[in-house]
Amino acid sequence: MPILSLQNMTLPTASHLPTLLHDWREDTMNFLRHDAPKIVFVVLVAYVLTRILRAIARKTADLHIKNVPSGMRVQQIRTLTSVITSVGVFVILFVATLEVLSLLGLNLGPMLASAGIAGLAIGFGAQTMVHDFINGFFILFENQYDIGDMVRVAGVKGTVERMSLRQTVLRDEDGTVHIVPNSAIQIVSNTTRDWSQFPLRVVVAYSEPSEKIVKLLKEVATEIRHDPEFRDDIVSDISVPGIDRVGNGEAEYLMLIKTRPNKQYGVSRELRRKIKECFEKNNVQAAGPGRIYVMDQGPAKVL
Known about the structure:
This protein is of the alpha+beta class. The chain has helices at residues 17-67, 74-103, 108-125, 127-141, 210-225, 264-281; strands at 150-153, 156-163, 167-171, 177-181, 188-190, 196-205, 239-247, 250-259, 293-296, 301-302. A hairpin with a 5-residue loop joins strand 3 and strand 4. It contains 6 helices and 10 strands. The protein folds into 3 domains: 20-125, Orthogonal Bundle (Helix Hairpins), CATH 1.10.287; 144-190, SH3 type barrels (Roll); 196-302, Alpha-Beta Plaits. It starts with 16 loop residues before the first helix and ends with a strand.
């Protein structure tokens, strides 16, 4: 291995210093006259663009929040606004940084190549997390469910308590909290979107005249439809198609009730109570020994 000798190195002498100082001064002045103003301009433009972007995002979010009938989507709107703003600010700062480095005379090729390799390594190591964030973004952007909705995702059913780009937190009927990564969510079943419909089946003795039972059920349906406590929860007239099944000395009558989201449970309880009182008042014969069956059939259907 060759050894460098100080004798072979050309050191600046006193006669060279004025030239070096002059060149350095010229380079500095050229930089201050030409490149420095451009750098300042790029920084100012980036600063102004970020301020404008944040202001527009904030105003847009506030406008959407004011138009939301309830506060359930506030967290979603703010989270989505924050994500979009952060991405926009990152793009602005990234472009501004590249422009400044270019004005400083730095070679961007090796730097971009190194950044690309590092990005690939991080991407392979965090694929699940990236998938979480992508799924979370589209869940928020498409408003697939809100806080307070009853949903079934990834085989778990419960009420949405919290949601972010990373995960969705559900609480089921017995109080258990389920934390579901957004990457695990492939199908969303929302039982509280727009309106709910549930079938109510009333079973009485086969010998009861069908016209009588249908008439009584329609009277009860009209009564609860105009009840001040429940009329706002029922979105349309209750349908009574008639007999749905017969057998074993029984006749089963079907009622279809369409309600606002999450209101079907209270309406069905009140409807069963009114049917029981109506049948007792009109001496409707029970389907079995001293009993009249009023049943919900399956989960509420939401369209």
